Amino acid sequence: MANPIPLSKVLSSVLLLLMLLSTASTAAPLIPVEISPAQITPGQQIQLRFTVQYADEADAEFTAPPRNEWGPLQLVETQAYPARWDQGVWRQEFELQLLVPEAGDYALPRLWVEIVEGEQRQRQQLAPAQIHVASSFEQDAQEQPLMRMQGEIPSEGALPKGLLAAILLGAGLLITLAVLQRARRRSAATVAEITPPTPADLARQCQADQTPQWEALRQWMQAQTGQDPLALAPDSAAALPAAHIELLQRYQQARFAAPRPNNNAPEPRPAAFIRLCQACEARLS
């Protein structure tokens, strides 16, 4: 007959199991992450926002992962907003500014916030998030037929021959008019694409509404220099004039300017955009 298991060992095993279950049930939930804007294109800067809550005597600290863990994504800026007291806890919002240079699907690296209370530190992990970047040059969707003729032609005698001929002729005229109207719209759109706004036009518009049109200037510079400002590489830059390289680099610096070392606020984007448009008008036009 086998020896019975001591009662002390049984109680120890049960206590250990209860402790493991208690730890699993009280694990901190993942912090949700909000990504904006919803539609993202290459070269666009996006915002990641998340909110952390903690007790009265605690504090929150966020440290961004090193550069090699972000992959193609580029971390431009990290900002922690002042905490606010809400319903018995502190709530603090954090914001990350990211740059996505290429189209594709990206996963964020593992991110977490440390809750510091005295000598104790507890990590709260952010929920995993996927970033989809759509191409800026999406192809037009396939056109649907203007009209589908369905059903059988009535047998002879159901309609007078003259009336049937008039119906078919009218349908043919309607189809022809629809095709001509679509062709005129396409012709007008093609002319608009061939004659994009100049840097002088973009500068005047920015002075009026204080909204830089970065993508319009990017397409104009690519048409003039043969080089995409957001895809400037050493091998492609070697064949370009020095003036072109300088303007292409100024585009990247002006569009994605980081905060100055002695000033938390970046340079005003409209002013930098207007100066770049004036330089492009003087050197590339």
Automatic annotation (TrEMBL):
Signal peptide per UniProt: 1-27
Listed name of the protein: Protein BatD
Keyword presence, Membrane: yes
Assigned keywords, A-Z: Membrane, Signal, Transmembrane, Transmembrane helix
Superkingdom field: Bacteria
Segments traversing the membrane: 162-180
Protein species of origin: Ferrimonas pelagia
